[in-house]
Design goal:
Order of helices and strands: HHHHHHHHEEHEEHHH
Number of strands: 4
Helix content: over 70%
Shape: globular
Radius of gyration: 20 Å
Structural class: mainly alpha
Distance between the termini: 47 Å
Largest sheet: 2 strands, antiparallel
Number of helices: 12
Strand order of the largest sheet: 1-2
Strand content: under 5%
């Protein structure tokens, strides 16, 4: 437990340093590095180490995706995506005896989910430039992480205190229905608290002054938190299924006491895209944009 706490404190400190560099290319670079580490963990989980050339194909493509907020990079996305897919197909043809297509397909699917997740942070940076929206993008990123990690913590303590009914005994024996309910409620409460703190400090949100933000907005946050918390559980269970089928306990050891990147971000993978899409489709429609 002591190791887990120390790792969490250090991790949060690094997170705040990265967020302080949000307006620089360093943020994109760090997100790309984290994404590549996560993809590498999945690559190893599927036991594809002998086909390292497959992973190295993801390196330039991931960098391209994470810097696609730059217009010159964005115009290259379609042709490079096509060429990357063609590259993977040629690898399968050329190395048909050493590449198991089922394993490669599973790894590529997981890698695409990871890319979609971390690209959501870059998308928010592009959608909400600081000169126009202040720190709204950072608010939504912290909200995303809060739904995931805050929900996890609330679920853990609720499960310890009240857990009796197993949620998914085959996949994750320690998860309980009571813990899941506690996680959802914890995410809802955290979403409201984070919003209250941010609006108190910043004075504006989604381009609106505080006096125009009513209870409807908080209702959206509560609903988003509830759905996000459920998706966090889905991501956690999905990652657990992959680990069980691949015969591994953790994805990595980069975080002492916690495991690898995907052991920490498994609950984030489906929440981040949801928040990004909600900002675009719901909140900005509500704001009249």
């Amino acid at each position: 437990m002591k190791t887990r706490i120390i790792t969490s404190v250090v991790g949060l400190a690094v997170l705040f340093v990265v967020m302080a560099l949000f307006d620089t290319f360093v943020f994109n670079l760090v997100i790309a590095a984290i994404c590549l580490l996560a993809i590498h963990e999945v690559f190893r989980a599927f036991h594809l180490e002998k086909t390292a050339y497959l992973y190295w194909g993801f390196v330039p493509y991931t960098l391209l995706v994470m810097f696609s907020d730059l217009s010159r990079v964005r115009v290259m996305m379609l042709p490079i995506s096509y060429l990357f897919a063609l590259y993977l197909a040629v690898c399968v043809i050329r190395h048909s005896k050493s590449i198991e297509f089922a394993k490669l397909g599973g790894m590529v699917l997981y890698a695409c989910i990871i890319l979609f997740c971390f690209y959501s942070f870059i998308y928010l940076k592009q959608l909400l430039p600081r000169e126009a929206y202040g720190y709204d993008a950072l608010y939504f990123i912290f909200l995303t992480l809060g739904f995931a990690w805050g929900g996890d913590s609330a679920a853990y303590f609720a499960g310890r205190a009240f857990g009796k009914h197993k949620l998914a005994p085959v996949v994750s024996p320690n998860k309980t229905v009571e813990g899941a309910v506690g996680g959802v409620l914890g995410s809802m409460l955290l979403g409201v608290l984070v919003t209250l703190c941010y609006t108190a400090l910043h004075g504006h949100l989604v381009g609106m002054p505080l006096d125009s933000i009513g209870l409807q907005y908080y209702a959206v946050i509560v609903l988003l938190a509830g759905i996000g918390s459920v998706l966090g559980i889905v991501g956690d269970l999905f990652a657990s299924v992959v680990k069980r089928q691949c015969g591994i306990k953790d994805y990595g050891t980069i975080f002492p006491g916690h495991g690898g990147i995907m052991d920490r971000f498994d609950s984030v993978i489906f929440i981040a895209p949801l928040v990004a899409m909600t900002v675009t489709v719901v909140l900005y429609l509500y704001a009249g944009r």
